[in-house]
Write a structure and sequence with these properties.
mainly alpha, two-stranded antiparallel ribbon, 24 helices, 2 strands, 3% strand, globular
């Protein structure tokens, strides 16, 4: 049995039947519920600590609401509460505080600008973040800190030339913050092995410094990257290491739920984990995952119920554009005009291959096959290896009779079986 940090590869082999043609695939079972059951019962440790910190700074600020030195730390506590609970009102509270601090500060404007820019990035208001950081960079500022965030903003808006310029300015292969951005750049360039290598180096730095927040961030992101590379046992171990540090970490639990569903096809276990998450971390995407799991199980009533729950949750106006990418795919199956409106808005917000491939999907669903093909050829093809972009490109190619291009993408999509999940894998097999 695996206990806190002692990780043993489980070499249990079985047969998996999931494709429409009953193809047999051997796989090793990695999940052992005894590894993480105790963590599923822990829900409020981080919340209680964050709420206590929030009340401390609220009380500090209460006697003098203009105390600019307290506004930033208080805003930070609301950011932490958002991460822990998923309650978007906390993100909006943090935004208001950063704005106030930025407007009245005489000595730390650039610090508050970066805090506000990070808040905008969390809200997917990427162009606003980019503009604020560029304005800040032009004045007196901590150049390196601002350059780090400028890289983040440029990557989100698809301004890749400027992102690379910012990356070159912060180059330091012994610096954690440079390495995690170099990993992101490598992943964007389609070099997953290099991205993992840089994250592993960042992990070593985080561990040597004993910095818990950096370790948690690195472990969860390495878990994702290992999963993308098909290294499922290592992904699982990263999520377990995260939970050993932060027992109520929702991201790690969701990662384990995805392994249960996508790799082991244990939908009951995946739902069990997601149901515990929804008790304390209410975010709309869990309902989408539960809907997909229900579709895989052939339970279309439950699928519809969860899709309706997702739409209701994601329609909260406080989310703004945060769930646009999810809503585009959702409405592409139910409200094509709305899907197209959101897709066009999203391309204006962040002109990346990932947003353009969503626009192409909606154009295709609306019957604009040639327009969808033009979008793929001009803005997606050769610019990303992200599996969903490849899948939607394949749909567009097939609709336009480009069977050779479909055949070229199909092996890549089959290799990404874990990442795209078994429902979409069936679509791949039918291309």
């Amino acid at each position: 049995m695996i206990k806190k940090g002692q990780f043993v590869l489980l070499l249990l082999s079985s047969l998996l039947y999931f494709s429409c043609d009953l193809t047999k695939e051997k796989y090793s079972k990695f999940l052992n519920s005894e590894d993480y059951n105790a963590y599923l019962e822990i829900k409020n440790i981080s919340y209680e600590s964050a709420k206590k910190n929030n009340l401390f700074w609220l009380n500090r600020l209460a006697p003098d609401s203009s105390g600019v030195g307290d506004l930033g730390p208080l805003a930070g506590t609301y950011g932490a509460l958002f991460t822990i609970t998923g309650d978007v009102s906390n993100l909006k509270n943090a935004e208001a505080l950063y704005k106030k601090a930025y407007s009245i500060s005489a000595t730390n404007k650039d610090g508050y600008a970066r805090g506000l820019a990070q808040n905008y990035i969390s809200q997917h208001r990427f162009k606003e973040a980019q503009q604020l950081l560029e304005d800040t960079y032009a004045g007196p500022t901590n150049k390196r800190e601002t350059e780090l965030q400028l890289f983040d903003a440029y990557m989100e808006t698809g301004t890749y030339d400027k992102a690379f310029e910012a990356l070159e300015k912060i180059k330091n292969t012994s610096d954690y913050h440079y390495l995690i951005r170099l990993a992101k750049w490598s992943d964007y360039r389609g070099d997953l092995d290099a991205a993992i290598n840089y994250l592993e180096k960042a992990k070593t730095i985080a561990e040597s410094g004993g910095l818990k927040p950096l370790k948690i961030w690195t472990y969860t992101n390495l878990g994702d990257f290992y999963g993308h590379a098909g290294r499922i046992d290592e992904a699982y171990n990263m999520y377990l290491q995260t939970l050993a540090l932060e027992p109520d970490n929702a991201y790690a639990k969701k990662g384990i739920a995805w392994i249960a569903y996508s790799y082991e096809k244990d939908t009951k276990e995946a739902n069990r984990i997601l149901d515990t998450l929804l008790q304390s971390h209410k975010v709309p995407e869990y309902y989408l995952l539960k809907a997909e799991i229900a579709e895989f199980d052939g339970n279309y009533i439950v699928q519809k119920e969860n899709l309706q729950l997702f739409e209701a949750a994601a329609s909260n106006p406080d989310y703004g554009v945060m769930y646009n990418a999810y809503l585009i795919e959702y409405y592409a199956n139910s409200n094509l005009k709305k899907a197209l409106d959101i897709a066009q808005q999203e391309v204006l917000n962040r002109a990346t291959p990932e947003t353009y491939q969503l626009l192409a999907l909606v154009q295709l669903r609306n019957g604009f096959n040639k327009k969808a093909l033009s979008t793929i050829e001009n803005f997606v093809e050769g610019k990303t290896e992200e599996p969903m972009a490849l899948l939607h490109s394949a749909y567009v190619y097939k609709a336009n009779g480009l069977d050779a291009k479909v055949a070229e993408l199909k092996p890549k999509l089959e290799d990404a079986a874990f990442e795209i999940g078994p429902v979409l894998l069936k679509n791949v097999q039918q291309l």
